[in-house]
Amino acid sequence: MLVLAGVVAGITGMISLLHILFGLEDLGEGMRLLVNMSEFLFFLSLLFILVKSGKKLL
């Protein structure tokens, strides 16, 4: 599960980086939806990794 969350964080992080560099939201409604979903999944996967790794350390 941690590997899957890492992959999701990596892919959505790249989409967020492209959005910051090139302004993907300006390309249309579909891209705006993709960027919003990608930001949500990015933070959700980082939260999952943080919770799972916190339990492993305790």
TrEMBL record:
Residues spanning the membrane: 33-51
Entry keyword annotation includes Membrane: yes
Keyword Transmembrane helix: yes
Keywords: Membrane, Transmembrane, Transmembrane helix
Protein name: Uncharacterized protein
Species this chain originates from: Paenibacillus pabuli
